[in-house]
Amino acid sequence: MIIVLIGLSFQIKVEKKDIQFDLQPRFKKEALVLNKERYISEKKDTLSITTFKFYISNVVLEYENGTEYKEPKSVHLIDIKELNTLQFQLKKVPDLKIKKIRFNIGIDSLTNVSGNLDGDLDPSLGMYWAWNSGYINMKLEGKSSSCKSVKKEFQFHIGGYSPNQNALQEVVLIVPNDENNIHLNMDLSKWLNEVSLKETNSIMIPGKKAIEMSRFYKNMFTIN
Question: Which pTM was predicted?
Answer without folding.
Answer: 0.91
